[in-house]
Automatic annotation (TrEMBL):
GO terms of molecular function: serine-type endopeptidase inhibitor activity
Cellular component terms (Gene Ontology): extracellular space
Keywords linked to the UniProt accession: Disulfide bond, Glycoprotein, Secreted, Signal, Vasoactive, Vasoconstrictor
Name of the protein: Angiotensinogen
Coiled coil stretches, renumbered: none
SUPFAM superfamilies listed in its UniProt record: Serpins
GO BP terms: regulation of apoptotic process; regulation of systemic arterial blood pressure by renin-angiotensin; vasoconstriction
Pfam family, one: Serpin
Record's function text: Is a ligand for the G-protein coupled receptor MAS1. Has vasodilator and antidiuretic effects. Has an antithrombotic effect that involves MAS1-mediated release of nitric oxide from platelets.
Amino acid sequence: MNLAADLLCLLVCLTAVTCDRVYVHPFNLFSFNKSNCEELESLVQEGKKTFVPISIESQTTPAYEGDLNDKDKLEAPSLSGWGRQKLSYLKDFVYILGARFYSKLREVRRGQNVLLSPTSLYGSLVSFYMGASNQTAADLQGLLGIVPPSGDPDCTSRVDGHKVLSSLRMIESLIKSRDEELLFSKMLFLFSAPGVPLSQLFVQDLLPSVDALYARAVDFTNPSEAAKQINAFVEAKSEGQSKCLLTDIDPSTDLLFAVDVRLAVNVKQALRLKEPQEFWVDSNTKASVPMLSVTGTFKYKTDASGIFSVVEVPISKTVLLVVLQPINGSDLEHMESKLPLQSSAWLQQLSPREIKLTLPELRIEGSSDLQELLTDMELPALLGKGADLSKISDANLTVGKVINKAFFKLASGGTDQPEDPTAQKEDPVFLEVTLNKPFLLAVFEEKSRAMLFLGRVTNPLH
């Protein structure tokens, strides 16, 4: 696949300029070894054990579900040794695939807010890889970018999905490990047609990667009623936070997969301006928007062509916010067309600068269907009707929507700005940066610099 080749080229370049450690091919950090392969043989029979999910209408809690908070507590985040190396490569795989997905979304959602979670989308693909066999597994592995240095077709040429999901979960654990100013949650929903068996091993393998997992049976042959039931179920399990997960369903669906990932941050050092400020949605339309002000030493640059500026701001102990805005008369559409998202160069060579940043309060969410994204990437068959997903079910599955819902909230954790603006002495050395027109944002975990969210804000009120 071209994507896999691009990833390898990027990683070779990154390795050449990084460090003096011994080079380890990224594949070897995530692959099966000989002993793993022997264990796999013993798990073949265990993988044949199945269960049939209870109806979505049932009020009982099935034995196969559980709260994973205690499991999270057992794993203290650590970035020493191999763990650090794994994340250093994985963040690049996540970034490139996330940027590719974003490029497709922005084309079909012009003028709209866009938000996706590259880590969540990548994790969804890993989940299906773990449920796939034969050519489907090989194709998914190629899309994930973790390809072997040689083409030996034995077990050791395969990626161990458990290692990848564990590293992704490590990133999420790092977010929550040192911070009380934020809330992070991730839920996974598996909705199957009545009577369709699911592999116990497959579901058990996914459990550690999320805060909660729910599997329920839904009658998809009545699409409108199925959508209503699913939306009500997700809203109830998210305690009202996640609403209207979907609007339509293909009645031939056997399995619908949905992930809901949410991050809310109260920025301690941010002040909420007393009065709403103007935000120019376009050259003719403005809105009155609640704004935040944060001042400090932040990383900053303008691109060489003078089209956009970049500011990197720590918004908590574990999370970084990067915002890009058009400058010098440019607009968002022009900026996006010139922004080299395929490379992470726009995130590099930022310099410390004293900055007063004014930006909107944010409450932005987005939903994307991985099936549609794969179709846009000319890979419609990857999870299509011919896909070999025999490790998910011994039935011939038709996978419907693969929904990834993302939510990001940014608010002040401090106090409102004083009534008298003159009470704050202006420091002339501070560069004032005001986000009062459409801009791009990216959210990163601070230690690994893995991209959690990537999005576009065209109207903060939507």
